[in-house]
Amino acid sequence: MTPSTFNTSAAVKAGNGLTYREFVPNEALQPFVDCYWLLEGEPQPSNQPVRDKVLPHAHPEMVFVYGNTFKASFGDDAPRRMPRNFIVGQLDKFINLETTGTTGALGVKFKPDGLYQLLQLPMTAFTNRSLILTEVLGESAVTLTGQIMAADSTLTRIALVESFLMQRVPSKPNALPYIPKAVNKIMGSGGSVSVGELTDEFGVSERQMERKFLERVGITPKLLARIARINHVFKLLRLHPQFSWLDVIYTCGYFDQAHFIRDFKNLAGETPTQFFARKSSLAPIFQGR
User: Fold this and answer.
1) 154: CATH
2) Looking at the 3D structure of the chain, how many domains does it have?
3) DSSP-based three-state secondary structure for 130
4) By the 8 A CB rule, do 108 and 61 touch?
5) pLDDT in tens, 167-197
6) Is the entire prediction scored with pTM above 0.90?
């Protein structure tokens, strides 16, 4: 694929001068990669840091930072400056981000089980962690990062990443095809499908499915469903701004308001009222898209 042939979404203005755009991957990568994304922005007039919170969204990410590096903290951990390249695995807690100066980042948003299929590494090693890409993939990642830093256009950067990933497309069929099918069921239903329904459909025990999910996704199917459901809330709020909270809560399959608030607080570290009282720049980008 040449750099000029990527299909792209309309740019999303995310607030605080940030612009977000998605790009469709090569067809051969689509079982593993949801999209490539670009986040760019100029410094704010005040030159003050932009702080925001991102909730778990069920997708591992590979990120290359060609603008100013930024700080991140997982849950209540102390913030630390992120490297130029890293992989973030599945999360069961929020991330606090702090950006300063010029923002420029290219990301690969994987399917929940897509990173495992390309790397063949146990995903529990990445859960609630960010790992420097070069420490995971060695010298090839060093070369790729240097090429991305030197590239003079967005499409060139994406083409470089895509070529890198294409070399890792598995040559053999998935040995456990029920895992991506179960993942698609969970994500496609907005987290409303039960683990019992999945085990009945695919003829495996709950324990076996949980073990394979931990290996290939990094979290259990039950937790993936909880995360998918919270992100479905954000999607409904974006697509149907006229919906009341009760409309959203019951459409997403929560038993009642208390059930929703409990699940939200477990993932966000605060209540929905507290979270939505702030004007988030990044939630419209990473939640429910």
Assistant:
1) 2.60.120.10
2) 2
3) strand
4) yes
5) 999 988 888 999 999 999 999 999 999 999 9
6) yes
